[in-house]
Design a protein that fits this description.
This protein has 135 residues and is an alpha/beta fold. It has one domain: 2,3-Dihydroxybiphenyl 1,2-Dioxygenase, domain 1 (Roll), CATH 3.10.180.10. The strands form 2 sheets. A 4-stranded mixed beta sheet has the order 1-4-3-2. A 4-stranded mixed beta sheet has the order 5-8-7-6, covered by helices on one side. A hairpin with a 7-residue loop joins strand 2 and strand 3. The protein is globular, with a radius of gyration of 15 Å. The termini are far apart.
Length: 135
């Protein structure tokens, strides 16, 4: 069985977060969705993001929750199939209420850009040219 990853992120307003990520094309597993949390499917059977209302998130850790709008607690990086897909996802994120705190970076063999979601979590989108990674 392949290893699965579940990234857990605190959110202030679950409905607004679901609406935001739905606008980007993500879907959610209704079996793991209630008023406290939802399971966003990033990649079938491999990558999921658990969006947890802050009060529920606090039950999993004794540490304070970082204010992602003031400090970076994690960079979630996802691969894309093309440069155009990177740009399209960023465009959708901005249209849904997110923002782009950085400019796109074109390193020749790799292209990346990203967005900040409604709660300030940073999402990096990366396209790497097949076979063009420097040796």
């Amino acid at each position: 069985m392949a290893t699965q990853i579940f990234v857990n992120l605190p959110v202030k307003d679950l409905k607004k977060s679901v609406d935001f990520f739905t606008a980007l094309g993500y879907t959610f597993n209704p079996q793991f969705t209630d008023e406290n949390a939802t399971c966003m499917i990033v990649s079938d059977d491999h990558i999921y993001v658990m969006l947890l209302v802050e009060t529920f998130f606090k039950t999993f850790t004794p540490k304070p929750i970082a204010d992602a709008k003031a400090a970076t607690e994690v960079l979630v990086a996802l691969s894309c199939e093309s440069r155009a897909q990177v740009d399209e996802m960023v465009k959708k994120a901005v249209a849904a209420g997110g923002r782009t705190p950085t400019q796109p970076q074109d390193l020749g063999f790799m292209y990346q850009h990203g967005y900040e979601d409604l709660d300030g979590h940073m999402w990096e989108l990366v396209y790497m040219e097949p076979g063009a990674i420097p040796g």
